[in-house]
Write a structure and sequence with these properties.
The complex is a heterodimer. By secondary structure, chain A is mostly helical. Chain A is built from 33 helices and 6 strands. In chain A, a hairpin with a 2-residue loop joins strand 3 and strand 4. Chain A starts with a helix and ends in a 5-residue tail after the last helix. Chain B is globular and about 45 Å long. Chain B has helices at 59-66, 89-94, 112-117, 126-136, 138-142, 153-165, 183-198, 211-214, 239-246, and strands spanning 19-30, 33-44, 48-52, 74-79, 82-83, 97-100, 171-175, 202-207, 219-224, 227-233. The N and C termini of chain B lie far apart (37 Å). Chain B has 2 domains: 4-96 and 170-246, Rossmann fold (3-Layer(aba) Sandwich); 106-168, no CATH class.
């Protein structure tokens, strides 16, 4: 009885912390319609910042709390809303989720950068050492405070969201932003306040939890999973149900802990240890709750035209894959053994990334578990009795594809963010319950034998790299075949409008299952072909996130996007080894790439083209652009400026100044403004090419970073200063042709777009 | 710059001006496609103006421009003689420009009471809004804690009207009030429009179907292809002209 009370109190405390975290999620979702994946990471960063103030610098607790929860966290939340999320209105769900995943990855990177693993002073609870006795059980003041906080948050949020005009305006803005403006409300301000408050709640939960579980990056970030589970009980909207969910989850965890320590509880089931059960509990809970959710009705949404994917043609696909193989084959001779292995690693990641193209790019189903399926592929390939043979490879792929379809079954009824969460929950479940088993990854590693193909020695790094490029190409052609087939058209139809698909008698279930199975099968190839000793953490959930990120950044509807994402992730790891000063920066880079998607949801390449397009049409700009580069080269040749100054100067010239030349010379902004901007850019050029970077910064990593910073600040600043266009709403496709008859060129373009002519 | 935040909010509207709302040679575009090609519309103070025209004539865009939701790419917008070109929707709403947009202007996930509370940005006390609205539409009082999304189409339009009427607007703009509603309910809603017009409020009503609105309108403007085809006293409106406009005539 005593124990029951003790564990109940533990459960209620944990539940209270989850409730605080979950309520923050609900606030941002109900007020901006964006599911904030970075909520847990915000709490984690807040907890670390609090630790820095309170323990590293020894400030008094009230001051540290006030600073973190009252100033830093809200400012951070407001900044994120203003800089990143405000641009996400009217973008696809995939982009929204990816951007907050990007935030998470960047924040984890930042935390490992600022607080590398070390022995730190213990993160103590509030009023550490004080406790009261309740029913004969000692309860620390910290636990009582946590519980009090949850109640205060519950009451406070209820009052703010339902009784104040600002709160009602926040909810109104989600329903209809324009109508809220027509009422005189300021939706932008309301949404900023909501994000500020939510960040503060995340911080409170993070600090409360850090005292219970310790100051560790990943567990604190994964607090968000528990919060999700609770928030989903409330369907991301209802605060009371969210609190119920949080308390149930807290109690479940506490009782599992109790049972785990009891003698009657089985240590293992069927050879699998049960020790990971408690860790997997939030995800199991999340999975179960998601599946129990009532099915969302199919809705006829507006047709989006932002993402336009071209059907890949055979000639281009064959040319592209041929070039890739030729490129890799000619490259491996030049590389060191270590770099060849890195290249192979990048190609493996590219294959895993390719698995997202049919699933996310074509069928529109966001998965956060590509590497989980790859990991399953690696394990099965290693454990099969005739491992290493082509037959084993095929069997592995078949088994993983079947698992993929099996996972999709419960997920069939889910869409958008709920589906993404379910796949994330699956990834964590597999990591905790299967990959962490000592008899699966023996001592954390498994030996995947090289594929035996007569005449080839795939243990040789060079041959392996070439073989992987061939494998990627073959799988890419399979994906192209699928896209050009009936199944591919069905997938795209399902993405564009499930409702329209259903009304013409399409089998949505079958299409979804096929997409999942195909995707899992391709991912299995990645795992089975990544031979050698591989560790379990290669396939953990937090590795899948940057991969998904970079693929979406590269363009998830195109095979080149997958190659871009996978190779970029591999190159990022390579960058960290080549330029050690940048290793901390590389931790943040994938995240930043994901966040940049918010600024420009169409991906990187179209943006670059758009920036340089005016230059090509303006002869004086071209002349000046070339002249500038020649001058820089001459100055270097004459020894006026050093090599590094030339590099920095040229990069800033080409990337920040040249795109602005047409607007500067012949733009519509008034002369004074153009003159001022021109002078400003000249000054930036002076700094970039005039300073002696070789002596100023002692590492090439920092110099590279400097280039990025100068370009990223000067270019956009000049562009926005010169921009005089009136921002008009985007063109709706049904308006084209309303102001004048179609031109023959437009008719031809339209016919090409629907595939009526070549 | 057309950013709403950079423009100064208009001072309280002067209702003694002879023209309460004026669009002068206004152009507006979606992306590169211009849909209003320089239209001029005036709403005399205290009158009801009907804006008529077939699908795609640019009526709703006109309302969007007049309410500040959409920037103009040319021309000027005036409220009570003051130039408010480039002022954002929020500021215009607070200055008394009240718009009921096309298709139920309610927040479906807020209750009736909360929907009414949203009107208080115009400076009217929240109790006053509630009393006025519930007095005009007793049906809403019965369901005050019900989510607006669960109301019938007619009730939602009542709620939107109630919200608009209780803010004591300088000008009221109604977009496609009758859309998807039974004729009887449309009749009731127009009785309310007539009543508020009798109180001296200026009204701009957009309708695709002319009959329901011409009974209460003083003036009429007929639009097609993003231009004004005809404007004048409502009584002078030629049935043939209207028909030929709808059928895509000259």
């Amino acid at each position: 009885m005593q124990q029951l009370i003790a564990y109940t109190i533990i459960g209620l405390t944990t539940g209270a912390i989850y409730a605080v975290a979950a309520s923050g999620l609900v606030v941002t979702y109900t007020t901006s319609g964006i599911f904030n994946f970075a909520h847990g990471a915000t709490g984690m960063l807040a907890a670390f910042t609090y630790w820095q103030f309170r323990y590293a610098w020894g400030w008094p607790a009230p001051l540290a709390l006030l600073l973190v929860l009252g100033v830093i966290a809200p400012l951070f939340g407001a900044l994120v809303e203003r800089v990143v999320l405000r641009n996400l209105r009217d973008t696809a769900e995939v982009v929204k989720v990816t951007v907050t995943v990007g935030l998470t990855v960047a924040m984890i990177g930042l935390a490992t950068w600022l607080w590398p693993p070390a022995n730190r002073e213990r993160f103590k609870g509030f009023f550490d050492g004080n406790s009261v006795e309740i029913f004969g059980v000692n309860v620390s003041w910290h636990k009582l405070i946590a519980f009090g906080c949850a109640i205060a948050v519950a009451v406070g949020l209820r009052l703010v969201l339902y009784k104040t005009r600002l709160g009602i305006a926040m909810r109104a803005a989600v329903d209809d932003r324009n109508l809220a403006e027509l009422n005189g409300a300021r939706p932008g301000f309301a949404s900023m306040v909501a994000w500020a408050g939510s960040a503060s709640l995340a911080g409170l939960a993070g600090i409360l939890l850090a005292a219970e579980v310790g100051l560790n990056i990943v567990p604190l970030t994964l607090l968000v999973v528990s919060a999700y589970s609770a928030a989903i009980v409330g369907r991301l909207r209802s605060l009371p149900w969210t609190f119920v969910g949080a308390l149930i989850l807290g109690l479940l965890e506490a009782y599992t802990l109790w049972a785990n320590g009891s003698s009657w509880f089985p240590r293992e089931i069927g050879g699998f240890s049960t020790s990971g059960l408690r860790g997997a509990l939030p995800t199991i809970f999340l999975f179960v709750v998601l599946i129990a959710l009532p099915q969302a009705r199919l809705r006829a949404g507006a047709v989006r035209i932002r993402e336009r994917a071209v059907v890949p043609s055979w000639s281009m696909s064959l040319l592209g894959t041929g070039l890739l193989i030729a490129f890799v084959a000619s490259l491996v001779g030049l590389l060191t053994r270590a770099n060849t292995l890195q290249l192979s690693n990048g190609l493996v990641l590219a294959i895993a990334a390719l698995s997202l193209v049919p699933l996310t790019g074509y069928a529109g189903q966001l998965s956060l578990a590509p590497l989980t399926f790859a990991g399953l592929g690696a394990v099965i390939m290693a454990k099969l009795p005739w491992n290493g043979s082509v037959l084993a490879l095929l069997v592995t792929v078949a088994i993983v594809a079947a698992i993929g379809a099996l996972v999709a079954l419960p997920a069939l009824r889910l869409q958008g963010i709920y589906l993404a969460l379910a796949t994330g929950a699956f990834a964590i479940m597999v990591t905790v319950l299967i990959f962490n088993q000592s008899n699966v990854f023996t001592n954390g590693a498994v030996d995947v034998p090289p594929l035996q193909i007569p005449g080839l020695d795939l243990a040789d790094p060079a041959q392996k790299a070439i073989f992987l490029s061939v494998a990627f190409s073959a799988l890419a052609l399979v994906v192209v075949t699928v896209r050009r087939s009936r199944l591919g058209r069905r997938m795209v139809a399902m993405k564009d409008s499930p409702l329209a698909g259903a009304t013409v008698g399409m089998n949505l279930t079958g299409t979804k299952l096929a997409a999942f199975a195909l995707s899992a099968g391709i991912a299995a190839f990645a795992g089975a072909l990544n031979t050698g000793k591989v560790t379990a953490d290669l396939y953990s959930f937090d590795q899948s996130l940057p991969l998904v990120l970079l693929v979406v950044v590269g363009g998830v509807s195109a095979i080149s996007g997958a190659l871009f994402g996978g190779v970029l992730l591999g190159a990022n790891a390579l960058l960290a080894t080549i330029v050690p000063t940048l290793s901390n920066v590389t931790k943040v880079l994938p995240g930043l790439a994901g966040i940049s998607l918010g600024r420009n949801p169409d991906g990187a390449v179209p943006q670059i083209e758009e920036n340089f397009a005016p230059v090509g049409r303006h002869l004086p700009s071209i002349v000046i652009a070339i002249a500038g580069a020649v001058v820089l080269r001459l100055l270097t040749g004459l020894g006026v400026i050093g090599n590094w100054s030339f590099a920095v100067g040229l990069a800033v010239w080409v990337l920040a100044v040249v795109p602005n030349l047409p607007a500067l010379l012949a733009g519509s902004a008034e002369l004074g403004r153009r003159f001022a901007v021109g002078m400003g850019l000249l000054g930036v050029m002076g700094v970039a090419a005039g300073l002696d970077w070789a002596t100023l910064l002692n590492a090439s990593g920092w110099r590279l970073l400097m280039i990025v910073v100068i370009v990223a600040v000067a270019g956009p600043a000049a562009r926005s200063a010169l921009d005089t266009t009136v921002r008009t709403p985007a063109v709706s496709p049904d308006l084209i042709g309303i102001d004048r008859p179609f031109t023959p060129a437009e008719i031809l373009e339209a016919e090409r777009a629907v595939g009526a002519v070549r | 710059m057309s950013e709403s935040s950079t423009a100064s909010p208009p001072p309280t509207a002067d209702t003694t001006s002879p023209t309460i709302l004026a669009l002068r040679d206004v152009r507006a575009a979606y992306g590169s496609i211009e849909v209003l090609h320089g239209i001029t519309i005036e709403v005399p103070t205290g009158s009801v103006v009907a804006l008529l025209g077939p699908n795609g004539a640019g009526k709703t865009t006109t309302i969007s421009v007049a309410s500040g939701l959409m920037p103009v790419t040319g021309g000027a917008l005036e409220i009570a003689g003051q130039d408010v070109t480039g002022v954002g929707a929020t500021e215009l709403a607070r200055a008394g420009v009240c718009t009921v947009p096309e298709g139920r202007g309610v927040f479906p996930n807020l209750t009736i009471t909360e929907n009414l509370l949203m009107a208080s940005y115009t400076g009217v006390e929240r109790n006053e809004i509630r009393d006025l609205a519930f007095a005009r539409f007793p049906r809403l009082a019965e369901r005050r804690d019900q989510l607006a999304g669960t109301l019938s189409g007619g009730e939602q339009q009542m709620l939107a009207m109630a919200r608009a009427l209780s803010t004591d607007p300088v000008i009221l703009m109604l977009d496609e009030l009758s859309m998807g509603l039974a004729p009887k309910i449309v009749g009731q809603l127009y009785e309310q429009v007539a009543a508020i017009a009798a109180d001296g409020v200026s009204v701009l009503v957009v309708e695709q179907f002319a009959r329901s609105v011409l009974g209460v309108a003083d003036h009429a403007v007929v639009m097609a292809h993003g231009t004004v085809q005809w404007s004048g006293a409502a009584n002078d409106l030629d049935e043939d002209l209207l028909t030929s406009t709808y059928l895509g005539g000259p």
